[in-house]
Design a protein that fits this description.
The chain has 16 helices and 2 strands. It is mainly α and about 450 residues long. It has one domain. Strand 1 and strand 2 form a beta hairpin.
């Protein structure tokens, strides 16, 4: 099968999953009709099913592993409805990640000998290892989710939950966290556990594990965590992930440290815990242990940055990816130093990778600006809140300042489009960039325009 068709198959399978999910969520057995905290009517009462707009938005959010919601997950959806959601973000996260890994490996078999060897070298796998790699990736995913499920269930039992409730909530949270979905079976997301490291830490580890990407997990396992043997992709992912977590924790902690509505009244260890969790979650899980709506606007800006970058390639996370961020960073560093070559972590970046990174950043930034302008015009809401919502949707994060249910349906449709683009768009764009074969028949004269 041609690689372009594989990328198309990813989009078709994604939309088919959304359609099936929408149908299932519209069944009377899926909903109670109680929107919970939502300030808008979400439809009729139990026995009549969710309206199309609610079911479609929620199915898109779950399948794209975003987590934006317009009704209260805990009160609006029945256990069956929540089970449908869990299956949707399992398929949307693990399923898409498996498909993406297959596309990556298929690309290594169709790039020509030189580029195939380079790609295989970078990813740490050979073109003939597709089956083994994908099976291993699925095993890793289920092992992580099982471990998270056990830890979370034990903790919930300790907190006094009944066996049935603890088991269900533990499973829901583990699957949601690993797939970076951000859905929680509680009306306040995870705010009720803001003082509980035995809940927040396992969830954060699942988020990080799902966001690393299969190629990096494979490389770490193969090379036994030996830095000198890791290729550039793995090095970039590890450095980028660590930098964003440490930097995000520091910035968010500093900004919210004395805010009485968030971290201000917490003990110091719990402040650090929640600052750390608030730095991990935007990349791109969408859980929140403190109220986003009452954070400082500067914190929103920092979170926007984390949501925009997201996780790493071939993982469950969204965003432009850590590797793209570091490519741009090293290009800027090269210009500041006046160097001839773009060196990064012991390797030299090729010009094609630089161009692709700039293209991804340009497209993503333009999309955010246009969508923000349109929704801001339609809703009349504060610019900072709209920008936060748009970035959250495109980055498939799911964090919100609370405006999602109040947006007009036209704006909610824009968000659903952004969620879809954020999930399948990067793969489609990246595949198109890699497979370009057009050769220019002539070259125009070179000139140097003034910059700045």
């Amino acid at each position: 099968m041609r690689i372009s068709k594989l990328a198309g198959l990813l989009t078709v399978s994604f939309l088919l999953t959304v359609a099936i999910g929408t149908f299932l969520l519209m069944l009377p057995v899926s909903s109670t009709g109680d929107p919970g905290w939502a300030s808008v009517s979400a439809g009729p009462q139990i026995g009549t099913g969710a309206p199309l707009s609610v079911a479609f938005f929620t199915a898109m959010s779950a399948t794209s592993v975003t987590g934006l919601i317009i009704v209260d997950t805990a009160t609006y959806w029945t256990t069956f409805g929540q089970f449908v959601l869990m299956m949707l973000f399992e398929l949307g996260g693990l399923g898409s990640m498996t498909m993406i890994s297959f596309i990556v490996l298929a690309l290594t078999n169709n790039l020509g000998l030189g580029r195939r060897e380079l790609s295989s070298y970078a990813f740490g796998v050979s073109g003939g290892e597709a089956k083994r790699v994908i099976v291993g990736a699925v095993k890793f995913s289920f092992a992580m989710q099982l471990a998270g499920f056990i830890l979370l269930t034990i903790r919930l039992l300790y907190l006094g939950k009944g066996l049935t409730s603890a088991t269900w909530e533990g499973a829901f949270l583990a699957v949601s966290a690993f797939n970076n979905a951000g859905f929680a079976p509680y009306s306040d997301n995870l705010i009720g556990f803001s003082h509980d490291p035995f809940i927040l830490l396992p969830i954060s580890f699942l988020i990080i594990g799902g966001g690393l990407g299969f190629p990096v997990v494979i490389a770490l396992r193969r090379h036994r965590f030996q830095w000198r043997k890791l290729r550039l992709t793995a090095r970039m992912v590890l450095v980028g992930t660590a930098s964003l977590i440490i930097g995000g924790t520091t910035v968010i902690g500093a900004l919210e440290w004395n805010n009485p509505a968030t971290l201000g009244n917490m003990p110091v260890p719990i402040k650090i815990l929640n600052a750390y969790f608030s730095a991990v979650s935007p990349r791109t899980a969408g859980f929140n242990s403190i109220d986003i709506a009452v954070q400082h606007s500067e914190t929103w800006a920092a979170t926007d940055f984390l949501m925009f970058i997201g996780g790493s390639p071939a993982g469950t996370a969204g965003g432009i990816k850590t590797t793209t961020m570091l490519v741009v960073f090293f290009v800027v560093l090269r210009e500041l130093r006046g160097s001839q070559y773009t060196n990064a972590l012991g390797w030299q970046l090729d010009q094609r990778s630089i161009s692709q990174a700039m293209t991804v950043v340009g497209i993503s930034t333009s999309t955010i600006l246009v969508a923000t302008f349109i929704i801001r015009t339609q809703s009349g809401l504060e610019l900072g809140r709209v920008l936060f919502e748009v970035t959250s949707a495109l980055g498939t994060v799911g964090l919100t300042t609370g405006i999602t249910p109040t947006l007009p349906i036209s704006a909610q449709l824009i968000l659903t489009f952004l969620m879809m683009v954020g999930r399948v768009g990067p793969v489609t764009v990246a595949t198109a960039l890699v497979l370009r074969k057009k050769k220019d028949s002539y070259a125009l004269p070179i000139d140097k325009p003034l910059i700045g």
